Fold:
Amino acid sequence: MTTTTIDTSATSLLRFATAGSVDDGKSTLVGRLLHDSKSVLADQLEAVETASRNRGQQAPDLALLTDGLRAEREQGITIDVAYRYFATPRRRFILADTPGHVQYTRNMVTGASTAELTIILVDARNGVVEQTRRHAAVAALLRVPHIVLAVNKMDLVDHAEPVFARIAEEFTAYATQLGLPEVTAIPISALNGDNVVEPSAHMDWYGGPTVLEHLETVPVGTDPSDAPARFPVQYVIRPQTAAHPDYRGYAGQIASGVLRVGDPVTVLPSGLTSTITGIDALGRAMDVAWAPQSVTLLLADDVDISRGDLITPTAAAPTTTQDVEATICHLHERPLKVGDRVLLKHTTRTVKAIVKALPYRIDLTHDLAHQDLPEELGVNDIGTVVLRISEPLPLDPYAVSRQTGSFLLIDPADGTTLTAGMAGEAFARNASAEGAAHGDGWDF
Amino acid sequence: MTTAPVTETTDNAPPASGRGYPQLSHLDVLESEAVHIFREVAGEFERPVILFSGGKDSIVMLHLALKAFAPAPVPFSLLHVDTGHNFPEVIDYRDRTVAAHGLRLHVASVQEYIDNGRLRERPDGTRNPLQTVPLTEKIAAERFDAVFGGGRRDEEKARAKERVFSLRDEFSQWDPRRQRPELWQLYNGRHAPGEHVRVFPLSNWTELDVWQYIAREKIELPRIYYAHEREVFRRNGMWLTAGEWDGPKEGETTETRLIRYRTVGDMSCTGAVDSDAATIEQVIAEIAASRLTERGATRADDKLSEAAMEDRKREGYF
Structure:
């Protein structure tokens, strides 16, 4: 391991997402986080001040920091997911800023798919509402490991502890039902900056972290040794040059787990076996590598391996299947129906698939009620699907791996991304009904 | 360019308590992600090309591509949109790099378009917006189906909405309201003949990440990124390089100043910043302390209107 000259280069990275209804103050919270962490630079602030003045607003509208497109500024709404970047000396952050508007579900699903933490905003005056339950359900569905409940607008309820406590309790009970592993509730005023970056002077009764402090300290990543190794082959590197006449490397990003030189491995779907003889971590030979490193593997035998294959330890190989049951979020206006022929993209492999059944649609807004056998799933619908695919696929349950348990459905005619899929059960609630208080069963 | 596969890659933080394996640093994570994107494109497209301007972002892109496919050569060619007003140091750097790695370079020339009457010089002399036509016509003529750009989402608010894989129609147009949702690391590159995909492997990098990575990997840059004396003049609140590109005009006086460039683009619209940062450590310290964004400090074309970048991107700009 080499030492570097710049300390900040060794900081960790947290990807997180926000979710909130239209008037919960989400843009203000994001603006406040960026502003108070000194991530907004003078020219950006100047642009916001000018735009605010032009609209006749007295104070700079921090929400304008995050509305980037012409239509958004004209209509005062947010379209689609945007990504924001900021850093503190302790950590680098990538924020998936998802709008709370009409297209909420698919946008929130998109943002949550890569997030390790989701901030769910509620208005202290309204408490847990339909939208809040929807946001919690999406976070549970996408298996986001950490949840922050930000109870906003505390200034409008006299900074009263009982108001906060009641909301936090109600939300936590619902989250437990969904199998959400960990909820941190924080009382804030995004408008005034209370408990966002600086501790509030108005809420002495709150002894927990500010939002930023929590973001800086929440553990990121998982222990790679908790999950079996999965290595989807992206590309075969064969220089065929004088210097490397026989080099044949399998390039990819380790989706989960740990790989070591000497590991006996199996290649799926062929079932061929070999042994890892070398791991090339972008120019450096390593004995061991782990997720999410991009590496190149060298194997003892000249077996037939190409893009789309999965290299996995022989001792922990997944089963392959041609029949997939999954929870899906439908993303496109064109609905999904039984009998549809689609493409399924899983890791680096794209295969043909037929929609055999749509067992039920889930009502995320209220009690997660099932509507059995819907005729179709429309945009923003969450439901379950049974697929028959053209060849065996090593699909892990999404609960085990977000990388090897997820897939896209694509329209073969025009390439449109139709659906986001997660193999297996939707929520962890059944599994965790007994042991929910311990918060485990969330292992990916 | 000191590129070629680099051997020092780890700057892992010490193991966090209770973990068997060290946490990857943010640079390692960003690097792995970018390499993944390069390999996806190599695996799924027929004719990819890397937009290469000789600026730091495209230099980092090329460095990542070299690492992604080592010890084999990069399976992409390069494309430079030459505005005719480029810095000579950058053109020199470009040509040395292409030669050093045995790459193939395509050039789309704005000057050629002006000379043969297919483009007209703008009254303000800014050539950056003129790049779109030569770029898109070159993409169509060479039938490129994936075009790597060094754009970062932290650069500009319209870019914050950009996908990693951004589908463009046969006119290279970007429609922010009709983008494919991008989930997990599953990038959908399907496209009809005539369409192509713009690919942004540095989407999640910030300016500081790029500089820290350049420092860690010891990547050579064109010298204009470091402090040097240059004859400049003031226009629209920026220091522009005096030269044969119609600057300075009457009434604009030149002076010699100690400056450097934060971005490298066309001389007609890229401003220099006053700086005595002569080493990469000094540059990083200067950026970390700066109260201006990269583009706010140095790009005239973004100031044309509130939606300047969005409008250019819609037309096919990268």
Notes: The first helix of chain B runs from residue 26 to 44. Chain B has two domains: 26-208+310-315, 224-304. Chain B is about 30% helix and 15% strand. Residues 224-304 of chain B form one domain.
